[in-house]
Design goal:
- The structure is a homodimer.
- Chain A is an alpha/beta fold.
- Chain A contains 13 helices and 19 strands.
- The first copy, chain A, has a single domain, classed as 5-stranded Propeller (L-arginine/glycine Amidinotransferase, Chain A), CATH 3.75.10.10.
- The interface between A and B is medium-sized, with 29 and 29 residues.
């Protein structure tokens, strides 16, 4: 009712927890833009719904919807554990547009709110304008009464970093050193900036992401931590595929690196699905305009099982309707051996929009200082 | 919109700042009960208005009003810097019913929310029921997204303690050891409880408060810190007055004590106004019922200039329309010598309800992490 703005000038004492630890909640933003999501986003909303429903079995989901999204679309999402927020949004990538959440020993949370320029701004951004998405972090922090540590001059999407929760940050050179991000900073300066703003001890740069990934190659599509000391790397055995050398180079870097604790990393190879392409039918359902990049039939899709979302006791795993789906499932099931339930979810429609399950989710680390209020129906109706 | 409940299990690292330091805001609760405030609280509201207006020149005022208070009464209070809150209240003593606000080095605030039993519960409480007032702290903390440290099993009103902000707590035996508060705890246990919950190093117990004070003798009517190392003590030179010996005993204790830093205290004597009594006319304006103590004509009023409210650059000083008013003003002006502006405010009507300016105000220490939102008119109308 009388929310209070909190701006923090420093991040001293705040840690960046591993995604696979307990969450307070997961934020998801609903899609609606017709120049990106075919058929008025209806098929995509079906997959977003499956993601939200699955997460809501385990924890609260904060569901952000643009005022343009009709109330009747939201009614379907009125599940136990789902709280609605109405904010102007440009698109639906919670991973990239929402703050990176840190937590201190006292249990207070802090949202590191970096600048967002639609994955490259004037250089190679994907939609314009992106003001609403750039402001969304501030709005959500206000809603949640979580302190904000603003760093808007530095461009960073949440999907371009992964942490093990013990001070090791994973990222990619292709994205972080791209001209579309922070061209005035060199690699060393970017590394120092990441360490400082996220309180990390070590940054590991992989050279490449996934081939044709429109994010300039986010880490979250190519490699993630399964637990401290162990990473999952998207791998390709087909030497004819451009991805082959990219993944091999990444493997070489990882196999020579140590983490913040001096440990060698255990590398679990995750096969990629066979190459997937945007179909004619899918492309025709998208309303082309000048505000977003074109999505033509035949375009290769940056599909990857590494773009999974890891909770304390569950993993949401992308599925593409191909035979590699089962292999991916088995690899994670084998790794977690009952410690986390692997939940396969079809996500081709999310992929058509340019990302996957990890890209549309953002974890807020658990703290018993906070409790999310339930939604009143009136919030949906706004 | 989606406030978050914050409950903290400990108060480690939180300090209790001196009232005379910079405030984030001051909370005030409006009066309305007709069995306490004569003529439907109209004359009292005039004085509350003057207090709110004066504070709002310097800082935000959080104005809490029971839903029973008509919107048209609130419109008068729609000043710049005033934010409204609608909550069920039993009466209007922000000092006693609202939490004690602590602050940590990071700038986070914490509300210590003690139990409230209307100054004595079944033993010698003043009005019944008092559930709304006992719940008010929790409600306000929710509104402000300030963490709550609940200690509801311990009965304590904010007016029964004063701190110098450096670890010295002032209180009175007559109140803190009263059977109406925490009869199962002995003096040592109460002292330890205060130290622990408010992070204080030393507790100084004065034996007495103000004669006939219906709060069992709150410290804030008899003695307060003017700054660390200096206290203001309500004093009486009339040996026929029961207050004479009470104040003298308190003086003796203070003059032998040292504060948490080992300093002797500088004691500034503040004369009391001549004895004041409830008039027949005043008494007749009160609607007598069984829910609150009787207020009969001839009753001696516990008037004291020590019940002033100290901000960073101002002091609100009670005035009773007697010649001692000017002396009181001069004593504070002389002490603060331009560092704080002394603002005299007539407060006989507040006194008739059983307290004074300090009793109706509660400071929230300043922190640049927090910013109070402005009131929307709709809040008044609720």
């Amino acid at each position: 009712m009388h929310a209070i703005v909190k701006e923090k000038q420093d991040n001293v004492g705040y840690e960046f927890p591993f995604e696979g630890e307990k969450h307070l909640a997961t934020a998801v933003i609903l899609p609606y833009r017709e120049d990106t999501w075919r058929e008025k986003a209806k098929p995509a909303l079906d997959e977003y719904f499956e993601v939200v429903k699955a997460i809501s079995q385990y924890e609260k989901v904060l569901l952000i919807a643009d005022p343009a999204i009709d109330y009747h679309i939201l009614t379907r999402f009125q599940l136990k554990n789902v709280t609605f927020f109405r904010h102007k949004t440009d698109d639906s990538w919670a991973r990239d547009t929402l703050p990176v959440f840190l937590r201190n020993k006292d249990g207070y949370l802090l949202g590191v709110d970096y600048g967002f320029n639609s994955w490259g701004g004037d250089y190679n951004g994907l939609y314009f304008p992106y003001d609403n998405d750039n402001n969304l972090g501030k709005e959500l922090l206000l809603d949640l009464s979580i302190s904000r540590f603003a760093d808007k001059d530095f461009i960073l999407e949440g999907g371009s970093i992964h942490t093990d929760g013990e001070g090791t940050l994973l990222t990619t050179e292709c994205c972080l050193l791209s001209k579309g991000r922070n061209p005035k900073l060199n690699r060393k300066q970017i590394e120092e900036h990441l360490k400082k703003t996220l309180n990390q001890d070590k940054v590991i740069f992989l050279p490449f992401g996934i081939y044709e990934d429109e994010t300039s190659g986010h880490i979250d599509n190519i490699c993630c931590f399964l637990e401290p000391g162990a990473v999952l790397l998207a791998y390709c055995d087909d030497q004819e595929d451009p991805q082959y050398l990219m993944s091999r180079k990444d493997y070489e870097v990882l196999s020579q690196e140590t983490d913040s604790k001096g440990r060698k990393l255990k590398i679990i190879k995750m096969p990629l699905p066979k190459p997937l392409y945007l179909t004619e039918e899918e492309s025709q359902g998208i309303v082309e305009d000048k505000n977003a990049i074109e999505r033509k039939a035949g375009r290769r899709l940056a599909a990857s099982y590494v773009n999974c979302y890891i909770g304390e006791t569950y993993v949401l795993l992308p599925q593409f309707g191909v035979e590699e789906d089962k292999i991916a499932f088995d690899i994670l099931a084998e790794f977690y051996r009952g410690k986390k339930t692997i939940i396969p979810i079809r996500s081709r429609e999310i992929l058509l929009g340019g990302g996957n399950i990890h890209c549309i989710t953002k974890q807020i680390p658990f703290s018993d200082l906070y409790e999310i209020e339930s939604t009143e129906d009136s919030e949906c109706k706004k």
